[in-house]
Amino acid sequence: MLSATQIAEYQPDANLLAGRAILITGAGDGIGKEVALTSAAHGATVILAGRTVAKLEQVYDQIIAADGPEPTIYPVDLEGATSDNYDELCVHILEQFGRLDGLLLNAGILGQRTPLSNYRQDVWATVMQVNVTAQFQMTQALMPALEKSADASVIFTSSGVGRVGRSFWGAYAVSKFAVEGMVQVWAAELDGLGSVRVNAINPGATATGMRAQAFPAENPGSLKSAAEIMPAYLYLLGSDSKVVNGQSIDAQPHR
Ligand code: NDP
């Protein structure tokens, strides 16, 4: 495995992901959009999953305009989707591609920034559904397609507050602790069994809509852009990370 610094500076060939089918949730905006564009630029056929179809269509158009492999769009709201929906998705992926080589579980929501003593029960339940339960259900349902790949990479999305609890981060922090744990359990169960590896990326502070929602007074120009944190995503999506399993990787290790 590369060191944290080597991962943050990873610069692969343009054909790193050629021939790979990769599903990205939250592909219409923020970090997920950037991973979709970057993956396509490195040869991947991307399945753009998200809840706002107009945004997914814009990403689709950008990939086509850049002569990337034609992506597909999968409209899904992680708040309301069920395991049955994800099972159907798996059937479609197997029909279309015969396998799934990458799954980036990127979509997430912030919930409230408020003390736990005031935290609304309904917001808590929604954050846990989107950030934890849906991620588990999608991974479980897509495992048959992932197992058909010779080299499948599942990437969950963590956060600094998923490793050290901090005031006022509420359900978001707890959900990211759950994600860290889920990665370890999946990775331990799959270790040595086949060709599916499961890791997490902590993007670190990145200029997106979610970051602006969490820190409205912050100057986004002081942050890394989503484009600048792509090396860690490319490393985990491509075959150079084939032996990496059960890790939680910082996209910005020195921040
Ligand atoms: P954004 O808010 O910019 O993007 C989130 C994406 O998730 C959007 O495309 C959004 O869709 C989608 N999404 C949200 N809810 C749902 C849902 N119910 N169903 C389907 N899709 C949904 O966030 P970021 O790009 O900043 O965050 C991406 C990931 O990185 C998240 O998991 C976040 O927790 C994590 N992260 C981000 C950091 C940062 O500094 N930006 C730091 C640490 C972690 P739509 O556009 O339709 O709303």
List keywords for this structure.
255 residues; alpha/beta; seven-stranded parallel β-sheet; 8 helices; 14% strand; binds NADPH dihydro-nicotinamide-adenine-dinucleotide phosphate
SSE blueprint:
Blueprint: H1 4-8, E1 21-25, H2 30-41, E2 45-50, H3 53-65, E3 72-75, H4 83-97, E4 102-105, H5 121-146, E5 152-157, H6 170-190, E6 196-202, H7 209-214, H8 230-237, E7 248-250
Parallel strand pairs: 1-2, 1-4, 2-3, 4-5, 5-6, 6-7
The structure holds NADPH dihydro-nicotinamide-adenine-dinucleotide phosphate.
Q: By CATH's scheme, which homologous superfamily applies?
A: NAD(P)-binding Rossmann-like Domain
Order of helices and strands: HEHEHEHEHEHEHHE
**Small molecules held by this entry:** NADPH dihydro-nicotinamide-adenine-dinucleotide phosphate
- Quickly count the helices: 8
Explain what the structure shows.
By secondary structure, the chain is of the alpha/beta class. It has a single domain (4-250), classed as Rossmann fold. The protein is 42% helix and 14% strand. The chain has helices at residues 4-8, 30-41, 53-65, 83-97, 121-146, 170-190, 209-214, 230-237, and strands at 21-25, 45-50, 72-75, 102-105, 152-157, 196-202, 248-250. The chain has a seven-stranded parallel beta sheet, with helices on both faces. Helix 3 (53-65) links the parallel strand 2 (45-50) and strand 3 (72-75). Helix 5 (121-146) packs parallel to helix 6.
